[in-house]
UniProtKB/TrEMBL annotation:
Organism: Massilia cellulosiltytica
Name the UniProt record assigns to this protein: Ppx/GppA family phosphatase
Domain Ppx/GppA phosphatase N-terminal: 21-298
Domain Ppx/GppA phosphatase C-terminal: 305-464
PANTHER family, sorted: EXOPOLYPHOSPHATASE, RETROGRADE REGULATION PROTEIN 2
Keyword Calcium: no
Lineage: Bacteria, Pseudomonadati, Pseudomonadota, Betaproteobacteria, Burkholderiales
GO MF terms held by the record: pyrophosphatase activity
Keyword tags: Hydrolase
A Pfam family: Ppx-GppA_III
């Protein structure tokens, strides 16, 4: 059983699901429309009042999670936490409240997870699809064919900024709506050709705002009663006629969500007009189902992150055999150091596979280029925190260690850095088969013990050990090699 928690800009939501016969059955849900994005000030910092509201909801969610025996929990935060200038200061308080790590995911990762949820709900593996998700702070548009995503983009327009900018105080006019739609179209125009060239057999809207618009249109038989562009324009005309969100009393949407729906409608009309979409279908699937599906895949050893590593290696022309040799040596050495955190093993192996990716930029300072690529490349499935951690391990593969002091303070991460540094040395010296004979310890100091005559057989390693001793001694970690 898995749990997905979505810390969105409009609402915080929780899904607990159990995989049964190829489907994920939702056994518990929770939602709190806290409007986190409304708590952003002029400097894009979250107000203390908004933070306190978030903490209360997270504590409530923590209580729900404790009622179930869960195999894995993943908590993801989206646009508001991406743009909040005080996010890093607020994050520890939020993590303490819910009792789990919180991942601030990129817009592209959000789009990929949304599509995973939609694809899982549809079940069918074929067909070209366009998926549009309008959230509180951003809009994700995904073009895919079956399970394969071809285009995923996150656009910085959402229901909250759209409503606050163009429908202030809840007032709705024809001019304001036209301005709002044109502003939305401007967000999508640069990439519209790419989406049209990809094409689609079906279009789906996956967010709560989409479902609210669909509910209002279908229940009140607005336009043709479906999510066609004509129906959306008819709903727009109805809102303009009423003139204010408080005057809207049609069934299908709660009164407090009318302003959210209005902002979302202006974006939806804009994106459909710009991409040339005539009609779409609202679907009750998206980010949370995508997170649950991803957790299930990881449990079954089908981790998207490993595919992302392979794609990155191909993109930058990494020698796969050299990378695999380095990773194997690093794993052997890391095991000798008796690490405690299993997760660090995966970070080390993935870092080892990408440790030479910087050579695509330049052989001079390749480790620095590699660290930059690992931190900033689009790696599906990875969080920004994970990529930052791997980039530091990669950066620490050679040269002075002062630049990676922040990870050296964590014992298992320091061991990972040591394992990758030595693995790179042994790989270049081609001593793969002789690694088992080396004894290695790291506890306050680094002690390496080699068999008699081993260093004479590998003279280049002896010279590199001297450089390693200098580097580690420079950061206060004694380094010694004995026979």
């Amino acid at each position: 059983m898995y749990a997905a928690v979505d810390l969105g800009s409009n609402s915080f939501r929780l899904h607990i699901g159990e995989p049964i016969a190829g489907q994920i059955h939702i056994v518990r849900t929770a939602r709190d429309p806290i409007r986190l994005a409304a708590g952003l000030g002029p400097d894009n910092a979250l107000s203390e009042a908004a933070v306190e509201t978030a903490l209360r909801t997270l504590r409530d969610f923590s209580g729900i999670l404790r009622q179930f025996r869960l195999d894995a929990v993943r908590v993801v935060a989206t646009n508001t936490m991406r743009v909040a200038t005080n996010a890093q200061a607020v994050l520890p308080r939020m993590e303490e409240a819910i009792g789990h790590p919180i991942e601030i995911i990129s817009g592209e990762e959000e789009g990929r997870l949304i599509y995973m949820g939609v694809a899982r709900a549809l079940g069918r593996r074929t067909g070209r699809r366009l998926v549009i998700d309008i959230g509180g702070g951003s809009t994700e548009v995904i073009a895919a064919h079956g399970d394969d995503i071809h285009i995923v983009e996150s656009f910085s327009t959402g229901t909250h900024p759209q409503s606050a900018t163009y429908f202030r105080g809840g007032h709705i006019s024809a001019d304001a709506f036209e301005t709002a739609v044109n502003a939305a179209r401007a967000q999508f125009e640069d990439l519209a050709d790419q989406y049209r060239q990809h094409g689609w057999d079906a279009v789906y809207g996956s967010s709560g705002t989409m479902r609210a618009i669909n509910e209002v249109i279908s229940r009140n038989r607005i336009g043709d009663g479906t999510m066609s562009l004509a129906s959306l324009l008819a709903l727009r005309d109805k809102l303009v006629e009423l003139g204010h969100v408080d005057a809207f009393d049609l069934p299908g949407v709660k009164r407090e969500r009318v302003i959210v729906m209005t902002g979302g409608l202006s974006i939806l009309i804009g994106v459909m007009q710009e991409l040339g979409v005539a009609a779409m279908t609202a679907i009750n699937a998206g980010l949370r189902l995508g997170v649950l599906s991803d957790l299930e895949l990881r449990a079954n050893r089908h981790d998207r992150r490993d595919l992302a590593i392979q794609d990155c290696m191909r993109r930058f022309g990494v020698d796969a055999q050299r990378a695999a040799r380095t990773a194997a040596i690093a794993k052997t050495l890391f095991d000798k150091l008796a690490p405690q955190d299993e997760a660090v093993v995966h970070h080390l192996l993935r870092s080892a596979m990408l440790h030479e990716v910087g050579q695509a930029v330049s052989h001079t300072g390749a480790h620095k280029h590699a660290a930059y690529i690992v931190e900033h490349a689009d790696l599906p499935g990875f969080t920004a925190r994970e990529q930052r951690l791997m980039s530091l391990i990669v950066l620490g593969q050679k040269g002075n260690l002062r630049k990676v002091r922040e990870v050296l303070g964590v014992p298992d991460l320091a061991k990972a850095v040591l394992a990758l540094r030595l693995a790179a040395v042994f790989m270049h010296a081609r001593v793969d088969g002789d690694v088992d004979a080396v004894r290695l310890r790291m506890k306050g100091r680094i002690d390496i013990e080699t068999p008699r005559g081993w260093l004479r057989q590998h003279p280049t390693v002896a010279a590199l050990f001297e450089k390693e001793a200098e580097a580690w001694n420079d950061v206060g970690v004694p380094f010694s090699v004995t026979t």
